[in-house]
Hints:
The chain is mostly helical. It is built from 11 helices and no strands. Helix 1 packs across helix 2, helix 6 packs across helix 10 and helix 6 packs across helix 11. The longest helix has 24 residues. It is elongated and about 60 Å long.
Amino acid sequence: MSDTASAPxxxxxxxxxxxxxxxxxxxRAARSLVLEQDLERTTIEQIAARADVSPRTFFNxxxxxxxxxxxxxxxxxxxxxxDGHLAAVSGRPVVEAVVDLAFLVxxxxxxxxxxxxxxxxxxxxxxxxxxxxxxxxxxxAEAMTGAVRxxxxxxxxxxxxxxxxEAAEMLLGMCMTGLRSAARHEGSDxxxxxxxxxxxxxxxxxxxxxx
Length: 211
């Protein structure tokens, strides 16, 4: 793994930024409504109205109100989205590319304490959502591991043979541990967290190699 300084994260295009903002606005509307009036009483029409979108637009982003309520489903993990990320980080060092993948999935809510608090409260108040959340996280993990394997496979220092599921999961696990730690600190700046993660993983790899 290279010790070169971390380059800036790839910037999202205008279309992607608008889609992300709409997705987040719908999810926030869903969470606020169910916390105000209960999950069963909340309708997709109400969520769409509060988010200032049509019900048809709602279904462009979420399959159900439960998916909209759960914070982890705010992320677009379609093959198109992951392919776009892989294209954006093409040629970048492995560590930077994997950290950027983690931010694609979880990084947009850094510094938003209310959002994190609402997500936790939703799960506590509506435990029937736990099974759906676990299923979603399994899907997220599989998609992210596959993307990391692609990043490793096309890097000359790794190659297809070294790009095993175990290697991908280990590197991804380091990133996610750092993200979870940062999420516990209110006001964490995403750029600072990203740079710190890249530096920490590189330093850890260097120390392990020297051990």
